[in-house]
Amino acid sequence: xxxxxxxLGAAAAVGLAAAGTxxxxxxxxxxxxxxLSNRWYxxxxxxxxxxxxPPDPAAIMDATGLKAFQLAFVLAPNGGGCSPTWGxxxxxxxxxAVQSVVNTIRAKGGDVSVSIGGYGGTKLGQVCSDAAAxxxxxxxxxxxxxxxxxxFDLEEPEYENTAAIKNEIGAAKILQQNNPGLxxxxxxxxxxxxxxxxxxxxxxxxxxxxxxxNNFSIMPFDGGFNGAASQTGALTNFNxxxxxxxxxxxxxxxxxxxxxxxxxxxxxxxxxTQTDFQTVLDYATSHNxxxxxxxxxxxxxxxxxxxxxxxTSGTCSSVAQNSWDFAKYxxxxxxxxxxxxxxxxxxxxxxxxxxxxxxxSSTAVYTxxxxxxxxxxxxxxxxxxxxxxxxxxxxxxxxxxxxC
Length: 404
Hints:
Blueprint lengths: L9 H9 L4 H6 L9 H6 L2 E2 L9 H8 L3 E8 L9 E2 L3 E2 L5 H11 L3 E7 L6 H4 L3 H15 L3 E5 L8 H17 L4 E7 L7 H13 L5 E5 L8 H19 L3 H6 L1 E6 L1 E2 L5 E2 L1 H13 L4 E5 L31 H7 L31 E2 L4 E4 L2 E5 L3 E2 L11 E6 L1
Parallel strand pairs: 1-2, 2-5, 5-6, 6-7, 7-8, 8-9, 9-12
Antiparallel strand pairs: 2-3, 3-4, 10-11, 13-16, 14-15, 15-17
């Protein structure tokens, strides 16, 4: 995920930071709506607007009543540099594709938040020279789309990099100061005891910088979890970590705590059904938690029957569901009532490809869109890669196109 761009110098970074107080106003001129309530940004599910067969957000809004979307992910350019891109390949500065998605959502009375980071790829905090330069890069995103909300998804491998996390937390603090009213969430990995060592170090970095976002969210999946009880247990433990780190009482810690789940089959083969989501939603609302979201809307639809339960997909959940079932839990968290709907029919299975692409080679270089075959499946590259064995994963470079 890399395209070379020069990093802003310190003077430019400071200049952009100083101009941040007008960023939301300037963004409004390019199509931003009035801000939604923070509860909607707190409930916004993740949507990849350029990858993983993006669904139509207008259709989701009509079917569920959802108003807010968490667009993912902003990264450093492929090859390095300190300017924002979508997925490392599409420069924010020249973007029209994501802007079109944003315009569609806003035309229906909704809005978006943007998530930076995520699993894999090169993050701006890793390559920008300091917090000010990192903030200046993110300010371009805020200004471009007239944002009222932003999410810092700090996880593998970035959160193992002390300097990068210092840059990200410092940038989040600058953006919060220079964009009054900006809703800021920080999302990190979840473990059975709340979060792991690197997550705790990230919290300590925030404390040392005097930074308090609207919430710190954990992702209780891909770590030996088994249904809702294990997730609510992790949320309880994470609440205790927030209390001990920041000196908050229990209620204050819950008011700054969030949940970010994964609908259906996780990367490690865990399963989270609609019933699990309802249980965690009940926990979140009864404890007055600040955020309830999930990865992802691209997956919020049923796989073909042959795939249900058999694999983790970036484009379907691998559990039995109607389209957008999981989005309705976000709508409920925001305080709205999803419209009644009739069950959607089971999708007609897509027949497998009749022919295999050229065989994968460990020495070949593949770029975005290149296709090859491996283990009797065809695969498509999402970005530049070499010597990465094809495997189905939301976070990986390869998109499984089915049996051949």
